[in-house]
């Protein structure tokens, strides 16, 4: 294929607007896959993707299409469509020259449509606007076209109207891809240079990397260098995804395909890296923004004897998702486990679901938190903390407040689109989450778009559910990283009869301290069984007590019901009580069952 006959493109859309259905139709009408009714979303390969109907990992396929008597190679680069995966979207877009911007004819422009459009615009891509699902009874293609015009400045006659489900208008999409999206700027006579834009781990074949060849030719059997690490690899196999791997002898300038080398894990296959030949002096592709974990949670086996099984399950899953960060962690209450970092909440959800599905182990995930930052003062303290700025992933590691000069918390820029009758309730929900409304615009005479600055910590728990419930399900939400902001934070400690329970410490905004203290104290009162002496449960910031609960003394006489002289039954019951105590953790002289920790810490 001469470079002029190659097109590299992606489909970008809000969740459920039909991206995978359209991809399937494109594969079918180009004969890449046979047309059979059960061709349900070939590109969504993971079980969780099928179940949740969302794309998690980007998949790529090459299609061949004849247009005006000429054969074209169309590389469809699939992108995940969900809020947490901006990073994966942007890296997939780097391999494209254009996108299909897909919008549902009934739902209209949604928060992720806006986010994805912005990414495509920033990457200078040709944008082909498409309205999907025109077969729906409730379809309003004219209204949606008007929205696209008013938000994106897209002229309404550029918009293609299709039904991916029925196949209506899908041919026109192929024509538009060829006519409106430019071919890649690539030159086969230049030294080889290829962009690595995705990678995954295959149990049998090792690391498979997706590459877009910029210039030159990359051939099976030759040696290539990864520019960031300078490591040399041998090309064991190279080919197209059609949509399953189809090996060839070489990939040429402008082509997109896969490569298998002697890389051992996906960490070596750094997304955004450039492959070149040895002793080549080509310029590397500009580096990508590395994936940054913003949501952290602890992961523990329900039973310590399952730790090894959990570890191997987690290790296998992270092999395929290098954006999950993983450290071992241990808690006196929950035992040995892990501290894991995720790109966002959905990423955490998807990970847990995969863990459950693929490995069948039972585990506890702790309530998520964000990386706070503090600035410490005094040369001695700075030295002790390895710098003036300290990132805090675990509340126990918070320096003493007397040495802290400034607290900072991560912020996000959120976009909400909803019908305007919900403006009042959405605004009050956002204010309640310490959101600051930065902008508000009318998309048309029934819908509004709000741009809100939130502390990330405030949207970690139930925000999306609450938003859905105050808008009867009509709001869409998307967010992106917006850096750190100075904040007023405190560490809330919990005490049982005056002994601090380290693993329950929490960091929160000053205004949330009292609520947090009350909530946790109440849960502890409910879950810690009465003992022979009274227990005072307290939540405090430094020495100031914010909440208190009392657990009255009580001796649980397990043998009370066994009057009479059945001594063997009595000893059996006493033995069982003693075994129960083994599962407890002693804080001072108080036995705290593991359940109490789980109840407070669990998500
Ligand atoms: P993500 O992978 O999460 O981004 O979702 P998606 O955009 O890939 O959506 P998907 O293709 O899974 O489609 C979502 C739902 O819309 C499915 O139930 C499809 O059957 C349905 N759908 C897609 N296209 C059409 C269409 O043209 N008409 C109708 N009526 N339904 C459609």
TrEMBL record:
Main localization, broad class: mitochondrion
Listed CDD domains: EF4_II, LepA, lepA_C
Keywords: GTP-binding, Hydrolase, Membrane, Mitochondrion, Mitochondrion inner membrane, Nucleotide-binding, Protein biosynthesis
GO annotation (BP), single: translation
GO molecular function terms attached to this record: GTP binding; GTPase activity; mitochondrial ribosome binding
Gene3D superfamilies (UniProt xref): 3.30.70.240, Elongation factor 4, C-terminal domain, Elongation Factor G (Translational Gtpase), domain 3, P-loop containing nucleotide triphosphate hydrolases, Translation factors
Membrane-topology annotation of the record: Peripheral membrane protein
Residues bound to GTP: 13-20, 78-82, 132-135
Function: Promotes mitochondrial protein synthesis. May act as a fidelity factor of the translation reaction, by catalyzing a one-codon backward translocation of tRNAs on improperly translocated ribosomes. Binds to mitochondrial ribosomes in a GTP-dependent manner.
Entry's family note: Belongs to the GTP-binding elongation factor family. LepA subfamily. Belongs to the TRAFAC class translation factor GTPase superfamily. Classic translation factor GTPase family. LepA subfamily.
Name recorded for this polypeptide: Translation factor GUF1 homolog, mitochondrial
Organism: Littorina saxatilis
């Amino acid at each position: 294929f001469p470079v002029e006959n190659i097109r590299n493109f992606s489909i970008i859309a809000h969740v459920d607007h039909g991206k995978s259905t359209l991809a399937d139709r494109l594969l079918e009408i180009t004969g890449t896959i046979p047309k059979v009714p059960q061709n349900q979303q070939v590109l969504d390969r993971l079980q969780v993707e099928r179940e949740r109907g969302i794309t998690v990992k980007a998949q790529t396929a090459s299609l061949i299409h004849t247009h005006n008597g000429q054969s074209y190679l169309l590389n469809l680069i699939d992108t995940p469509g969900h809020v947490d995966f901006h990073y994966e979207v942007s890296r997939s877009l780097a391999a494209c020259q254009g996108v299909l911007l897909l919008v549902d004819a009934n739902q209209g422009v949604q928060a992720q449509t806006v986010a994805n459009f912005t990414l495509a615009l920033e990457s200078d891509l040709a944008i082909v606007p498409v309205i999907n699902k025109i077969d729906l009874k409730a379809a309003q293609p004219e209204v949606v076209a008007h929205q696209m015009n008013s938000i994106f400045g897209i002229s309404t006659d550029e918009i293609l109207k299709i039904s991916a489900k029925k196949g209506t208008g899908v041919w026109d999409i192929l024509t538009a891809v060829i006519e409106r999206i430019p071919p890649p700027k690539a030159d086969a006579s230049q030294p080889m240079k290829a962009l690595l834009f995705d990678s995954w781990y295959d149990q049998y074949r090792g690391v498979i990397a997706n590459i877009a060849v910029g210039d030159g030719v990359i051939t099976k059997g030759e040696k290539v260098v990864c520019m960031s690490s300078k490591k040399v690899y041998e090309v064991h196999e190279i080919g197209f995804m059609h949509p399953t791997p189809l090996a060839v002898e070489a990939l040429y300038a402008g082509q997109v395909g896969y490569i298998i080398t002697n890389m051992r894990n996906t960490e070596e296959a750094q997304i955004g890296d450039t492959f070149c030949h040895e002793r080549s002096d080509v310029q590397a592709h500009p580096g990508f923004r590395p994936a940054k974990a913003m949501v952290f949670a602890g992961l523990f086996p329900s039973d310590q004897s399952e730790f090894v099984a959990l570890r191997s399950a987690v290790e296998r899953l992270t092999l395929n998702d290098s954006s999950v960060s993983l450290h071992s962690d241990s808690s006196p209450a929950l035992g040995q486990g892990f501290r894991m970092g995720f790109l966002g909440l959905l990423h955490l959800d998807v990970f847990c679901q995969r863990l459950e599905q693929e490995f069948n182990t039972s585990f506890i995930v702790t309530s998520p938190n964000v990386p706070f930052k503090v600035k410490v003062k005094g040369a001695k303290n700075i030295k002790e903390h390895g710098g003036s700025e300290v990132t805090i992933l675990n509340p126990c590691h918070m320096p003493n407040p007397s040495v802290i000069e400034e607290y900072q918390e991560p912020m996000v820029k959120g976009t909400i689109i909803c019908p305007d009758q919900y403006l009042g309730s959405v605004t009050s929900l956002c204010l309640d989450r310490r959101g600051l409304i930065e902008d508000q615009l009318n998309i048309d005479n029934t819908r509004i778009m709000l741009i809100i600055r939130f502390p990330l910590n405030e949207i970690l728990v139930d925000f999306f559910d609450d938003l859905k419930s105050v808008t009867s399900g009509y709001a869409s939400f998307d967010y992106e990283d917006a850096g750190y902001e100075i904040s007023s934070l405190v560490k809330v400690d919990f005490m049982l009869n005056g002994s601090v329970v380290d693993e329950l410490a929490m960091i929160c905004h000053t205004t949330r301290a009292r609520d947090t203290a009350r909530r946790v104290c109440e849960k502890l009162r409910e879950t810690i069984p009465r003992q022979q002496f009274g227990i005072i449960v307290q939540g405090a910031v430094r020495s100031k007590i914010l909440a208190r609960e009392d657990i009255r003394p009580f001796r649980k006489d397990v043998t009370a019901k066994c009057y009479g002289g059945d001594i063997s039954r009595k000893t059996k019951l006493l033995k069982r009580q003693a075994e129960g105590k083994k599962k407890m953790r002693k804080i001072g002289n108080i036995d705290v069952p593991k359940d109490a920790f789980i109840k407070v810490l669990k998500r």
